[in-house]
Amino acid sequence: MASKGEAAVSGAVERVGRYRWVICGLLFAATIINYIDRQMIGVLKPTLMADLHWTEQDFAGVIIWFQFAYAVGYILFGKIVDQVGARVGYTIAFVVWQVAHIFHGAAHNITQFAIARFALGIGESGNFPAGIKAVTEWFPAKERAFAIGVFNAGANIGAVLTPLVIPYMVIAWGWRSAFVITGVVSFVWLIAWWLLYRSPREHPKVTEGELAWIEQDPADKVQKLGYGSVLMKRETWAYALGKFFIDPVWWFFLFWLPGYLFERYQLDLKTFGLPLAAIYLVSDMGSVAGGWLSSRLMRAGYTANVARKLTMLVCAFAVLPVLFAESLTSVWMAVAVIGIATAAHQAFSANLYALPADMFPRGAVGSVIGIGGTVGAVGGILMSFYAGEVLARIGSYWPLFAVAGSAYFVALACVHFLSPRLARVDMGA
User: Fold this and answer.
1) Cα 134 from chain centre
2) Quick check: do 16-214 and 232-428 share a fold?
3) Long-range CB contacts (< 8 A, 24+ apart) of 211-218?
4) Please, is 229 exposed, middle or buried when counting C-beta atoms within 10 Å of its C-beta (0-12, 13-18, 19+)?
5) Which fold would CATH assign to domain 232-428?
6) In what residue span(s) does the Major facilitator superfamily (MFS) profile domain sit (predicted)?
């Protein structure tokens, strides 16, 4: 039950403003751009394989270079964001990934494409460390999972827009121009970010009441903590191993699902967009719902430990039907089953992303996120290699759906075993 002080602060926020949601909106927009840029290669897989004469292993190799760079970049940007803050860190990441995205339009062979994907992976890896750092600065603990769920929903909006818009751009102007046009237009976001983002205490739009709401949690030490300080903490590996098991599933859905719909249901560039967009639209609702549920449970008096883990357990069960996806003969039945699975992934992910801020002081959050992102990208590399080999050798997606259906239970078990109570970490210990 909320105290009188909390109720007074909450009432003040209701009256005087919610500028923190403008910041959340900027993060949401950046994540849309991030996922349009990321997913274009999946949507264009059949086109690129035909035009550039790739095999399944070639496609997997290009994806692996992206994921390898993503793993390296997460470590890099986790540290950068903790040192220079979200505003500058996000700016650096955005410029790198947009320049790399535009360069795809100039690639003529697999080596050049792999270089472009590598650079894209370095830049895009900064999106979530910087975004979660911003959420940590701008939202109290009870709102963080919901705020993360909202901006993480941008991933699904990007995934919805990509198959609806990009095929028509390709038909009209070719796939090379599609990369250039989307990259150039995206720089509008960077202007908005630089003009609108500051820390809450420095921002003229933040009222005293809203600042009190943002800073209602007990203060932790204002110190920058590096990887050496967090690597030996069990709680770091609770988060990182969770990422190791669930991130590869999302990579699979992002990069191989368009090809699966092409092959399994005989769709083409014009007809597969609506089913694919429907899947990601459903997953978008899951991202917000997962953050809302754990935040609602916390407002009802449950601890973060109970709220986060109960929500993640519900999500793990919701993914299970994807085990039978390949046996479905109707494309819209497959859309329903896979859509629920992707929604559950996003809900699970929103709560997993909230754990570093639940357990660590602000000065360590970026580093923990960086380690987790790297470990998750390593899992993604293994999944990409596995997918390329499975599809080339046996031509069946069932083994890949089997991994997807079981990964979330393993991830939750790791989180619970390594951090049974999600207790705050004493960085002095």
Assistant:
1) 15
2) yes
3) 212/9, 212/12, 213/9, 213/10, 213/12, 213/13, 213/140, 214/20, 214/138, 214/139, 214/140, 215/140, 216/6, 216/9, 216/140, 217/140, 217/141
4) buried
5) Growth Hormone; Chain: A; (1.20.1250)
6) 23-423
Is the alpha carbon torsion for 61, 64, 69, 70 positive or negative?
positive
pLDDT of residue 224: 59
- DSSP per residue, 205-232: T--HHHHHHHT-SPP-------HHHHTT
What does the alpha-carbon distance between residue 179 and residue 429 come to, in Å, rounded to a whole number? 49
Which residue in 158, 107, 76, 72 sits closest to 380, CA to CA? 72
Segment 146-196, tens digit of pLDDT? 888 788 778 778 888 998 899 889 999 999 999 999 999 999 999 999 999
Q: What's the pLDDT at 116? A: 95
Q: Tokens 């650096």 label which residue?
A: 92
C-alpha 134/C-alpha 355 separation (Å) is: 15
Q: Which residues, given as ranges, of the chain have pLDDT below 50?
A: 1-2, 4-5, 8-10, 12-13, 16
Closest CA to 293 of 276, 271, 318, 329: 318
Please name the helix (run of DSSP H) or strand (run of DSSP E) that holds residue 183, with its range, or none. Answer: helix 175-196
Helical (H) or strand (E) element with 70: helix 56-84
Q: Which residues contact 343 (CB under 8 A, 6 or more apart)?
A: 282, 283, 284, 285, 286, 287, 289, 318
Which pLDDT score is estimated for 185? 94
Give the CA count within 13 Å in the CB-facing half-sphere of 369: 34
Tokens found for residue 87: 């505003």
For the chain, the first-to-last Cα distance in angstroms comes to 32
User: Where are the chain's structural domains?
Assistant: 16-214, 232-428
Provide the residue count of the chain: 429
Answer for the pair 349, 153: CB distance below 8 angstroms, yes or no: no
Cβ(142)–Cβ(2) below 8 Å: no
What global pTM score does this model have? 0.77
- What pLDDT sits at residue 124? 93
In the block, residue with structure tokens 């997460």: 74
String of DSSP letters for 331-360: HHHHHHHHHHHHHHHHHHHHHHHHHHHHHS
Q: Which CATH superfamily is domain 16-214 in?
A: MFS general substrate transporter like domains (1.20.1250.20)
